[in-house]
Batch of 2 targets.
Target 1
Amino acid sequence: MRFATKALRVGQDLDPQFRAVIPPLYQSATFGWEDLDHAPPFDYTRCGNPNRHQLEEVIASLENGKHCVLFSSGMAAIVASLSLLQAGDHVLIASDIYGGTFRVGEKLLPRQGIQVGEFCAHNPQSITDAVQPNTKIVLFETPTNPNLRVSDISAVVKVAKQHGLIVIFDNTFASPVLQNPLDLGCDIVVHSTTKYISGHSDVIGGAVITNDDDIHTAIYDWNKAVGAVPSPFDCWLTLRGVKTMACRMKTHCTNAQAVAEFLDSHPRVARVHYPGLATHPDYPVAKKQMSGFGGMLAYEVDGTVAEARKACESTHVFLLAESLGGVESLIAYPPLMSHATMTEEQRVAKGIPPTLLRLSIGIEDVDDLIEDLDNSLKLAFA
Ligand SMILES: Cc1ncc(COP(=O)(O)O)c(C=O)c1O
């Protein structure tokens, strides 16, 4: 089966009791035993649940993976994948990474006796420069947030494997529709299912996908022990979102391309970060690696910080809110939202000036999106 069909069929047979087309919701904390010799297939929802199991099956298949373990958030999934580390180990985290992951590396891991180093995913040789005898894991993502830089996944994997490292990849920004990092040699793929996978901004969730049986067992044991699990209803809602993911991603991509081209020619815009623009430095690698350029973009307003903030506050179709990957378009201001954990110097060093605005492009009529951004820039410079 191909992607769009798998999204509708894997793990989703007719309900055996009433032949319901849509899986029933098993909103039950516990399940009855027939007798002490016959435990039910799922006995307690922290350890497993039919709705969660269905979603795990389909997400694993969409990432071409053997196993998936679901979590109550993307961060819980990332922290679970890093639980493969123990005190005394060293991990390399890409310098251009989601703010929440940066926070884990800066604040949480050192407290557990884990050393954290940085590497640049654009320069895989930087892994060789930074690797230590106790390095166990490299963690990276592409396209990156908010600058939409695209690194060559296979090239990073190649160098990481020369050093025997486990490669963890956060595929949230691209979604499994646009790239499948396990196929490129990554050991673990993590997702914030909050974003494109559920797609409607109504659930928080996360997933860890792998082909490795031992890694899967360790992640599942962590999941069960820590209990950061999604509710049955959240799994049910996410599964509903999964069914339309392929279709949604096509519109996210075509709308984002049109918005990027519009902003690129706007006199009040200094720079547009979208890998689908031929002028983007990573256009060639994005074209080779991804089946579409995605729904995220960022742009630098050609003006003062006050004008950039005004533009950000002046949209009507774009909602001023954090997050991404939902059907509705959002505009965000990274210094106060996704990258608030970093200092101003850290942000500027990572190419996030205070005039940068980030867009999550939804599936509205693209002409309304373009008009809205045009008006917001007019208002900002009035
Ligand atoms: C790339 C990326 N990874 C992980 C996360 C964390 O996901 P969650 O908010 O579901 O914990 C986010 C959230 O914005 C993200 O953008």
Note: The pocket of pyridoxal-5'-phosphate is lined by residues 73-75, 98, 100, 141, 145, 170, 172-173, 192, 194, 204, 206 (CB under 6 Å).
Target 2
Amino acid sequence: MTAPIIVVDDVHKRFGETRALDGVSLSVDQGTVLGLLGPNGAGKTTTVRVLATLLRPDSGSAAVAGFDVRRQADEVRSVIGLTGQYAAVDEKLTGHENLWMVGRLLGMSRADAHQRAEELLERFSLSDAGDRQVRTYSGGMRRRVDLAVSLVGRPRVLFLDEPTTGLDPASRLELWDIARELVADGTTVLLTTQYLEEADELADRIVVIDRGKVVAEGTADELKDQTRGRVLQVEVADRTRLDEAREVLARMAPPEDIHVDTSTRSVSVAVGTDTALAASAIAVLSSAGVEIADFTLERPSLDDVFLELTGSSADATTEDDR
Ligand SMILES: Nc1ncnc2c1ncn2[C@@H]1O[C@H](COP(=O)(O)OP(=O)(O)OP(=O)(O)O)[C@@H](O)[C@H]1O
Ligand SMILES: [Mg+2]
């Protein structure tokens, strides 16, 4: 059992009439990745800004590495790194200069700051571009230098606010690898994302927020199970026996959970998390003499879960959210 290193307890934050955070509670164990998932305007960035001491909560408490974000802001800042949703590097400086400057701001000697800058440029495959102004970098390179900047001080806790939004698939994979390396080295990561796939890939646990409230949490698997759960789809060998198959299944499951699809010659039944129900459905069909050509037991995708929980699709963008 590891102890939580991030604890958020009933945090509220309003902007005028907008309840950006409406009683958010969550915790993150040391050395793990929490995926904070939610649609536009859900309160992800606001949560990160509260934890990074950039914004004071109206009520509730939040602590990082045991330090209270309100009363011990300096201590919190000394253990965290933040890569914001929008690039924070200076475009007119080179990659090396950006990193060097942050090192100096953190109190490193000139030599140490240069060394750290070189180390990070190398780690992020930016050595060749290190002496070029950041404004000449591609989007993926900017993201990498942004992440590198947040790592200068070797943070124990790293906040990544939508780190891969707008990146091409290759750059996204590269960033995921870097994030995994950091976690392997013991860093705790709180990652916000609108990409379910990203949360599925990187996060040990996922918290789904919507309109400032936590609407679900758990591992990706647990979230998939919390919703409609699994669906057993059975393809019958003889199309004319589909209705019979439906009737047989109706003895064990409510009619609204059973669907017949004549085009695929199949009947499906929602079995929730009860795999035994799936097995007995197949047994019941067989013993009724319905020949089964094929069957699958499918789990909902994280996309289905997200849609069901928030009522909006993961990639939907709205105009009024900023
Ligand atoms: N400084 C601010 N002033 C006024 N309203 C704000 C401010 N910051 C956030 N909000 C509002 O608070 C709500 C939550 O915003 P937040 O930026 O936390 O959402 P988000 O989950 O990060 O969304 P996105 O996926 O678009 O980045 C939104 O309705 C937003 O318009
Ligand atoms: Mg945001």
Note: Confidence is low (pLDDT under 50) at residues 314-322.
